[in-house]
Design a protein that fits this description.
Oligomer: single chain
Keywords: Cell membrane, Cell shape, Cell wall biogenesis/degradation, Membrane, Peptidoglycan synthesis, Transmembrane, Transmembrane helix
Helix content: 25-40%
CATH architecture of the largest domain: 3-Layer(aba) Sandwich
Number of domains: 3
Pfam families: PBP_dimer (PF03717), Transpeptidase (PF00905)
Number of helices: 26
Number of strands: 20
Family: Belongs to the transpeptidase family.
Distance between the termini: 130 Å
Subcellular location: Cell membrane; Membrane
CATH superfamily of the largest domain: DD-peptidase/beta-lactamase superfamily
Membrane topology: Single-pass membrane protein
Length: 740
Amino acid sequence: MKKTKKKKRTHVPLRMNMLFFVVFVLFSCLILRLGIVQIVHGQDYKREIARTEDVTVDTSVPRGKIYDRNHKLVVGNKPLNAITYTRSKTTSQEEMLNEARKLATLIKKDSPDDLKSITVRDRKDYWIMLHPDEAKAKITDAEWKKLKDGKLSDSDIYQMQLDRITDKEINSFSKQQLAVLAIYREMSSGYALSPQIIKNKNVTPKEFAVVNENLSSLPGVDTTTDWERYNVFKSDTGDAVLGSVLGNVSSSKEGLPKELVDYYLSRGYSRNDRVGKSYLEYQYEDVLQGQKEKVKNKTDKSGNVLESEVVSKGKRGDDLVLSIDIDLQQQVEKIIEKELAKNKPGHRFLDRAFVSVMDPNTGDLLTMAGKQYVTDPKTGKTVLADYALGNMTTSYSPGSVVKAATVLTGYQTGVIHPGEVQVDQPLKFAGTKVKKSWTPYGMGPISDLTALKRSSNVYMMLIAMKIGGQYTYVPNGSLSINKLDAIKKLRYNFNQFGLGVKTGIDLPGESAGYGGGVPKESGNVLDFAFGQYDTYTPLQLVQYISTIANGGYRIQPHIVKEIREPSEKSDELGPIIDEIQPNVLNTLSMKSSWIDHVKKGLWEVVNEQGGTAYGHINKEYKVAGKTGTAQGLYDGPKASEYWKRNELPPMTWNVTFAGYAPYDHPEVAISVVVPWSYEGTQADPHVNLEIADQVFKAYFDLKKKREKEGLDKSNSTQKVENAKDAKITNSSTNTSSSAQ
């Protein structure tokens, strides 16, 4: 029997078919999705990938320069080799730290100043970066659980770590690690895409070259030429001619001053911009700052810089030409130094002196000189420092120097007339001490001119009495004046000369002096009339005497004479943008004949025997003026020592002088103020007149010298006289040039 062999039937199980079907569907979906991405949205995604962002960055430019009236450079910009770092938007902390480590092997960043700038917080942050495991261990398991449960935030945990870092740990860094930290903190302190200066002082040629050679391995690092403000007339001790008036500029590290951050940011400044912090540099910030170079950086989606383009070239700030004569300024400062040194022995409170010199016809300040004895914090020694600023920020009782204003006020109020004679005798009022002039028994009947010449206090007191409504002096009688009305009239008229009001100088921080309000005693009104009640600044005194010298016009003093465009040539000034014109603040509502009459009295003070300045000032200069001596309790820097001991400070004397020359055609006016020059019954050293005589001599000697040299300032573009005396940057580019 034959056996029939069965054929095997082949078939795919159902589960396999289902698997194939699912795979088919998934591939179909994938193909469909790819089609949508490539066909429907392909162009959109291509544009997204290629998308760039334009970011404009401002690059700092050098500030404008400052010249004196004869076009000598006073303040310029010294070029500095600089190393900078610009981080991208996506740069991480770790990447910056790595860059800092590389850079620390190429440059030195461990000077005392560098290490001093590292704060305790910087050290703690750095320690956490270097010791992440140890930092994590400072947080307990319970605290980590609270973080997980939302009861603590990441910032809370980080603050706990900071608080628990010990002093030993933050002081455990090596010098090399601190150098890395010093570099890292500079890198991280700037904004993305904004160049941040890593080092710009004492960059050696070797450092500059080696960094340049390694730029390809240092992403974001670059080399450039930076600038530093430079005073040409700065001494080896660090004291600069007119330094306190010129003011300061913030450093690249300091950036915008904290108190002015919002103000400057609202005006388009960056936080790390250098700006004027005080006085002239601050007052003329808009002029000196210049226009920053704008660079547009094109970045990709990740923040990487693809391309940089200069949108607008930078332009350094405009230049200032001062009214100051720097040669006269230097000579006057030397005069003050010499006279203070000569008169200081035996006069324990004598520590300062001031001189203001002004053109009475234009308001040009030719000199603002001041010196003060201070203690050097480094050496502990007493040294003479610049205190030119004191001419406008400090005030003192001026004494008889204001008597010309008192006499003219007497004319104006109608209580006396030119040439009127009054009796100078000791005045004794009921219940008060005797009030008198400097002569023990009085000067007898004297005219107004003699009262000026011989400096009669009594004549001035009689004027004040009459202004207060009391026309007759009765020995041992009462002083029954209307003190409120009298002081108001006196102060109002004094204000017209510039006494007791701000002069309007183009600098911030000017003092108006001190007005003692309504006097407690009627006798204080009499004191006011001869300069022993209110206080005035040296600058107010020179404005006052200028108002008399020019015939009754109170001229606003100014320290800036011109604003000029920066020049491309290193030895020339650019064309004038603005020229400061004389500004009359007010005109005396007094007869010119009255003013001329008083000027005769001021002439007699200096040039006739019996005058209080006679024999002390060279007649060659044809000077007219008025001396002043004011007595009062010492109120200088050492007064607090007496008050602490519940003691009254001793009585001291301020000596002053205000005058002008030549008498017949005034071209220069000066004020001299020497506070606390001597005390008690010591002999008057006449230091005020010794200084005044030498200042007039210095002025006229310089004038003669220049006339012989035939100086000509007629061109709009002038040569810079001391172009070779300092090295400064010439433009906003990375190249530097010799000094202007």
